[in-house]
């Protein structure tokens, strides 16, 4: 009776969590990020009980906005398919396990975003805070580890490597200590080895250290090593390696910033190529793997390998903006990142272009999705269709760019 009185007369949030741990099943780290926010929507659509970790002071409104993208049909016409896409629009060959239905058998698509958002048990914590993480895992059986620092700023190199590896080690150790059912770790194709014969890289291509490796790539490789170490110690886990993830989210960061820049008027394009994938496909593959008996494997999640010029052209067309028309040569790009470095030093601001991003924009990388297709029988949204959906999200979002 004393314990119950302590909860009921004290902090109500503690009492709510005390009750909630007996029904909660899933923990999502990085709940406010691109993958995390979309994953929350997909899990809630299935009727799952979800807890999400977020940094204290982070903007939770971005997650509610993501929910709104799924539930609002007034995003404009889809130039590639002539229809509006919602969360239940599946590409041809999509895995049957993901039906958009809740456990009660009723689809949640069309639910009020605020109502869906209210189902999340938000847990403010620093992912490097071991005691806080331990508390967050109370009552959890499965973990989706989505959080990671994504930065190509040289001044943040050490932080990116240290924090991404340490946070993954914390999650792996706590999963082992608590004998959790399963872990899904979100890695990246940055942790996949390079191919120089023109063939798409696969899960069997091993990452090798190099002076040209950027901090994010290094951190993702060593984070994977922590998961593999956990698997050797008995952890039931899978790893996903998405290519560049496309979808509506924070319009100032990540791939969504492509849309913002092109909407404002981007003049230059580079000659590089890489893989791209819809965030909805990433979420469905993660859920499919977690609900399967698959363990101790990693999977590249990629839809298409596309040149940046073609990507920018598709985005410009979807936004009805001029296509970038000027080719950024190697000499121009190399001069550009050096001038940007100087500008950032003089103005005490972050560089908009770095050596790492400049070189990535010129590199040619291809990735195979054969393994995940065979494992789950899944299909992928065409990149053009994904761009149309994302562009409608940007246009819907307060008439363009959310400040």
Helix content: 40-55%
Distance between the ends: 50 Å
Q: Would you tell me the overall average pLDDT? A: 81
CATH superfamily: NAD(P)-binding Rossmann-like Domain
Helices and strands, in order, run as HHEHEHHEHEHEHEEHEEHEEHEHHHH
Q: In total, how many domains does the architecture comprise?
A: 1
Task: Give the DSSP E fraction (strand runs of 2 or more residues).
Answer: 5-15%
* Number of β-strand runs: 12
Shape: globular
Main sheet: strands, sense, barrel: 7 strands, parallel
What is the CATH-assigned architecture? 3-Layer(aba) Sandwich
CATH class (first level) name: Alpha Beta
List segments where confidence is low: pLDDT < 50 over at least 5 consecutive residues: 1-10, 73-110
Gyration radius, rounded: 21 Å
**CATH fold name:** Rossmann fold
Number of helices: 15
The SS-based structural class is alpha/beta
Name the strands of the widest sheet in spatial order.
Answer: 3-2-1-4-5-6-10
Structural account:
- The protein contains 15 helices and twelve strands.
- β5, α8 and β6 form a beta-alpha-beta unit.
- The strands form three sheets. Strands 3-2-1-4-5-6-10 form a seven-stranded parallel beta sheet, with helices on both faces.
- The N and C termini lie far apart (50 Å).
- The chain has a single domain, classed as Rossmann fold, CATH 3.40.50.720.
- The N terminus is likely disordered.
- The protein is α/β, with parallel strands linked by helices.
Notable characteristics:
403 residues; alpha/beta; Rossmann fold; seven-stranded parallel beta sheet; 15 helices; 12 strands; 12% strand; globular
């Amino acid at each position: 009776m004393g314990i119950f009185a302590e909860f009921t007369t004290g902090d109500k949030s503690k009492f709510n969590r005390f009750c909630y741990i007996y029904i909660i099943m899933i923990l999502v780290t990085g709940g406010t990020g691109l993958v995390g926010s979309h994953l929350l929507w997909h899990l809630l659509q299935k009727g799952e009980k979800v807890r999400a970790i977020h940094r204290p002071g982070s903007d939770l409104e971005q997650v509610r906005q993501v929910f709104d993208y799924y539930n609002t049909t007034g995003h404009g016409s889809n130039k590639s398919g002539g229809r509006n896409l919602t969360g239940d629009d599946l590409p041809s060959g999509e895995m049957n396990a993901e039906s958009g239905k809740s456990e009660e058998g009723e689809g949640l698509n069309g639910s009020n975003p605020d109502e869906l958002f209210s189902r999340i048990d938000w847990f403010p914590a620093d992912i490097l805070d071991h005691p806080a993480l331990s508390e967050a895992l109370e009552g959890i059986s499965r973990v989706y580890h989505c959080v990671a620092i994504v930065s190509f700023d040289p001044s943040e190199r050490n932080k990116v490597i240290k924090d991404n590896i340490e946070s993954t080690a914390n999650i792996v150790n706590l999963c082992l200590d608590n004998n959790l059912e399963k872990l899904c770790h979100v890695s990246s194709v940055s942790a996949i080895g390079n191919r120089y014969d023109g063939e798409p890289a696969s899960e069997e291509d091993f990452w090798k250290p190099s002076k040209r490796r950027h901090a994010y790539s290094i951190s993702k490789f060593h984070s994977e090593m922590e998961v593999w170490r956990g698997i050797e110690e008995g952890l039931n886990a899978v790893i996903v390696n998405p290519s560049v993830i496309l979808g509506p989210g924070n319009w100032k960061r990540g791939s969504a910033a492509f849309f913002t820049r092109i909407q404002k008027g981007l003049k230059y394009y580079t000659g590089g190529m890489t893989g791209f994938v819809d965030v909805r496909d990433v979420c469905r593959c993660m859920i499919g793997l977690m609900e399967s008996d698959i363990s101790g494997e990693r999977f590249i999640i990629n839809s298409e390998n596309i040149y940046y010029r073609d990507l920018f052209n598709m985005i410009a067309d979807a936004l009805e903006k001029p296509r970038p028309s000027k080719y950024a040569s190697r000499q121009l790009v190399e001069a550009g990142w050096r001038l940007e470095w100087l500008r950032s030093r003089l103005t005490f601001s972050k560089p908009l272009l770095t050596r790492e991003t400049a070189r990535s924009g010129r590199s040619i990388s291809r990735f195979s999705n054969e393994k995940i297709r065979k494992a789950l029988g899944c299909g992928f949204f065409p990149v053009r269709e994904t761009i149309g959906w994302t562009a409608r999200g940007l246009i819907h979002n307060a008439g363009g760019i959310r400040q």
